[in-house]
């Protein structure tokens, strides 16, 4: 289809007198094809006249008189008329808006069994319908069985009665198929024919559903479950039914939607396979919804939104991030902001259907979550450690849900296994991220912790939960870095390539430290008891020791910085300007550390981030910060600078 569109635009350029080159330029020019035609007409009329300025005045006057009555003038007048007409005409309405208007008009008309004036499906046998129907049904089938929830609430107003039903996928499919004759009627009668490019828009519109984000009732009786609904074990006066009814009525009245999803009633939690599918699909279901209605049961005023418990729950993070459209309602089911259709930034941009988000509510969201407008627009721009930080202070009822609720945010899927414990569930989440993403996974090591409970039982450098990511460093960007190889969990720990840089720390003047090669760094490290500054790659670490007389002093420390944000480029090792490292206590000599050798992870209060320095004066040992291009070294040259590349199990 895009190919045909291109041909059409080129044909139009030829009709207005443009060359092939001019036609190609129209795609990037700031003016339309019609306006370019006007400019060409002006050029044809004026330029030949100006070319004769130096000639005889009478001749120029005769030429001008001839041009005024000639074809150039006629072309110029026609183009000027068109230009003036375009200045006063109404703005073009996008095709998707026309389709929406036509569909709304069609489905507001009274229906007979098969639609307003439509034939029955059996009566329609001509080939175009068969082709159209097949394509439409294919798109519809994919949407219902792959992008929509397992079951949905269906609700309609019949006089004074508001009817609510619970539909399975097959029922949902049948509901949409019944509307096909009316769509076919629209195909022939509408001023906006439903071409194949528009079928997807049509399917999206027909299958629109609202989705609820809320905190569960703690009272008894509480929420209405799937089992309660099937067995009719509920009272319409109970708070659970009132919430369900209000959600359906709000979706219908405020958003003109007759389908909805609510986790309490639409998931059969007695089925472990259905519960597993629902949890793994939850992010996608919120993402595919037409509108996410957020019900803040504890809040009445817009200025108090940030205090609502909704912002403290683990599952509601993805429910805020996933949908394109979100609308916040207070405890009485009244919109906090009546003027805006959307309370969060819309990632698709703004047009007639997408007014700007509410600035007041946006401020409240940022106050409650620290999530920026850009992050709300597109969570994929946020580094992995930042996404973990967003979840750090949230709570869940089942401990494993702290990991399960983050699957969609990292675009991974893991099976659910309640009873495995939060640490094991979180470790499996990290493993899935390592295997699913080529870039950015090193950022999951951008954290620090002082206590044993902070660490995974399977690794000395992986955390046991998202809470530790509040210590992440925002001064380093790791999202664009691709590790040498996929980070892999083994029985020995996380298998990871690191560049070892031995270092010494002592209360000795820095002039007594001498770099072994051309690179060094002075790095302050924050411990629970204070800060110690290390000098990296000092010559005394291997070789004659200038500090022999200080060896008995307790303020001398020798540790190894394991830099992990390194890359392999054209067979060489790339060391960036800004490095991030893990602090190790190696039992082996500097430069002779092995993959399986015993090392201890030294815990620090903050991630270790520092800038490498390069020697610029050999005689004075003067160093400056490495430029933004970083350092590129052959692996054979690492040793002469005191570095060692090794794959460790940490």
Automatic annotation (TrEMBL):
Residues 209-299 form the Heterokaryon incompatibility domain. Residues 1-11 have a biased composition (Basic residues). InterPro entries: HET (IPR010730). Residues 1-33 are annotated as: Disordered. It comes from the Eukaryota. Residues 19-33 have a biased composition (Polar residues). This is Heterokaryon incompatibility domain-containing protein. It comes from Pholiota conissans. The lineage of its organism: Eukaryota, Fungi, Dikarya, Basidiomycota, Agaricomycotina.
């Amino acid at each position: 289809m895009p190919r045909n569109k291109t041909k059409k635009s080129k044909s139009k350029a030829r009709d207005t007198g443009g060359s092939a080159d001019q036609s190609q330029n129209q795609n990037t020019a700031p003016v339309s094809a019609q306006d370019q035609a006007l400019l060409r007409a002006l050029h044809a009329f004026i330029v030949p006249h100006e070319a004769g300025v130096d000639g005889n005045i009478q001749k120029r006057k005769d030429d001008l008189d001839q041009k005024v009555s000639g074809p150039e003038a006629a072309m110029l007048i026609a183009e000027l008329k068109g230009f003036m007409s375009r200045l006063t005409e109404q703005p073009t309405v996008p095709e998707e808006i026309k389709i929406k208007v036509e569909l709304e008009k069609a489905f507001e008309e009274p229906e007979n069994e098969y639609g307003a004036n439509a034939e029955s499906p059996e009566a329609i046998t001509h080939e175009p319908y068969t082709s159209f129907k097949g394509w439409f049904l294919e798109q519809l089938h994919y949407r219902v069985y792959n992008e929509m929830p397992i079951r949905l609430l269906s609700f309609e107003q019949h006089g004074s009665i508001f009817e609510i039903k619970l539909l399975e996928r097959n029922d949902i499919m049948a509901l949409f198929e019944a509307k096909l004759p009316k769509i076919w009627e629209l195909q022939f009668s509408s001023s906006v024919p439903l071409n194949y490019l528009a079928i997807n828009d049509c399917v999206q519109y027909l299958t629109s559903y609202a989705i609820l984000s809320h905190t569960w009732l703690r009272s008894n009786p509480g929420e209405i479950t799937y089992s309660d609904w099937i067995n009719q074990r509920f009272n319409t006066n109970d708070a659970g039914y009132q919430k369900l009814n209000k959600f359906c009525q709000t979706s219908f009245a405020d958003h003109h939607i007759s389908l909805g999803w609510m986790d309490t009633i639409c998931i059969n939690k007695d089925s472990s396979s259905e519960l597993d599918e629902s949890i793994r699909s939850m992010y996608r279901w919120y993402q595919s919804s037409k509108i996410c209605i957020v019900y803040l049961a504890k809040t009445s005023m817009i200025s108090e939104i940030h205090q609502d418990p909704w912002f403290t729950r683990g599952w509601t993070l993805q429910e805020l991030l996933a949908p394109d459209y979100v609308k916040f309602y207070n405890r009485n089911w009244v919109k906090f902001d009546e003027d805006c259709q959307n309370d969060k930034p819309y990632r698709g941009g703004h047009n007639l259907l997408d007014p700007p988000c509410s600035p007041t509510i946006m401020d409240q969201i940022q106050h409650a979550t620290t999530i920026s407008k850009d992050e709300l627009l597109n969570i994929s721009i946020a580094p992995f450690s930042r996404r973990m930080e967003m979840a750090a202070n949230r709570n869940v009822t089942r401990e494993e849900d702290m990991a399960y609720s983050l699957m969609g945010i990292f675009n991974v899927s893991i099976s659910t296994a309640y009873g495995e414990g939060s640490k094991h569930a979180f470790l499996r989440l990290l493993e899935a991220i390592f295997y699913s993403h080529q870039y950015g996974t090193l950022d999951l090591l951008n954290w620090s912790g002082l206590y044993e409970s902070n660490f995974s039982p399977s690794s000395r450098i992986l955390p046991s939960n998202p809470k530790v990511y509040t210590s992440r460093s925002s001064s380093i960007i790791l999202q664009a870095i691709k590790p040498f190889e996929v980070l892999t969990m083994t029985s020995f720990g996380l298998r990871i390539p690191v560049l070892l840089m031995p270092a010494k720390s002592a209360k000795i003047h820095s002039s007594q430290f001498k770099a072994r090669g051309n690179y060094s760094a002075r790095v302050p490290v924050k411990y629970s008891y204070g800060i110690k500054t290390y000098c990296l790659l000092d010559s005394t670490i291997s070789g004659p020791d200038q500090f022999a007389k200080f060896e008995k002093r307790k303020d001398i420390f020798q540790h190894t910085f394991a830099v992990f944000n390194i890359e392999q480029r054209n067979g060489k090792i790339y060391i960036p300007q800004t490095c991030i490292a893990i602090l190790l206590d190696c039992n082996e000599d500097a430069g002779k550390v092995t993959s399986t050798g015993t090392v201890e992870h030294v815990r620090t209060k903050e991630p270790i981030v520092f800038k490498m320095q390069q020697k610029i004066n050999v005689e004075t040992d003067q160093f400056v910060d490495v430029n933004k291009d970083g350092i590129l070294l052959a692996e054979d040259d690492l040793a002469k600078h005191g570095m060692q590349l090794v794959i460790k199990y940490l």
